[in-house]
Amino acid sequence: MIAVACDHGGLELKEKIKAHLIESGYEVRDFGTDSLDSCDYPDYGAPAARAVAAGECEKGILICTTGIGMSIVANKVKGIRCGLCSDPLSASLTRRHNDTNVLALGAGIVGPNLALEIVDTWLTTEFEGGRHSRRIGKVMALEEA
Description:
Blueprint: E1 2-6, H1 11-23, E2 28-30, H2 42-53, E3 59-64, H3 68-75, E4 82-84, H4 88-96, E5 102-106, H5 112-124, H6 131-141
Parallel strand pairs: 1-2, 1-3, 3-5, 4-5
């Protein structure tokens, strides 16, 4: 199951991504928002990130205008490694090297076609492990410091 969430700035893109995911055979849990009314991104991004951290959802995709706010929120949740990506190469590397479990996108930065390519790349790229596992262990240990 893939968690999706957005604020008002990411609503249109979230709906396109959600439809694409469902069409591609993924189960989706939508944490909102469902309105263009101004809202606060932590109210939607945090519950989605918590669902990923708790294992209720395998991965998460969070969208706001820049993706920055959502990535900050997600990375405040213990157990989350969120990468903000605006191109497929970054999406691939953030999975291969950083084993990210949440993807942040900026609706005002990437258009819908590029966003879908980023999502597909991110979802289908596997973590390489090896030396990267040691590094991820060090990153995750920072949550305990």
